Amino acid sequence: xLLNVSxxxxxASDLQRSIQFYRDKLGLRLASEIPNFAFFDAGGxxxxxxxxxxxxxxxxxxxxxxxxxxxxxKETYEKLKAQGxxxxxxxxDVNGKEWTAAFVDPDGHILSVFGPP
Length: 117
What we know:
By secondary structure, the protein is an alpha/beta fold. It contains 3 helices and 8 strands; from the N terminus they run βαβββαβαβββ.
């Protein structure tokens, strides 16, 4: 039986550039790094970056999105923009209670923040 999502793995064409983005701009804790892989603590789920996945796939970006839960979308949006994160969308109401704002990582993977305004 499947228990939970323990890891999300994304292809990274330039591992060091992606580590800097996730660690320095997004503030995720780099848990470990081995050749061709980096593992971040993403609050109960590991976010892994894989150079090997990028090398062996014709396209490292697909119709997927990694959604980060936050306590306040507008505040997080402003903090990440100040860190140099470029957003594809401004914060917006999605259902009357929760908001979202989308951005991309250095390889074009779609990421977003989601939670109360």
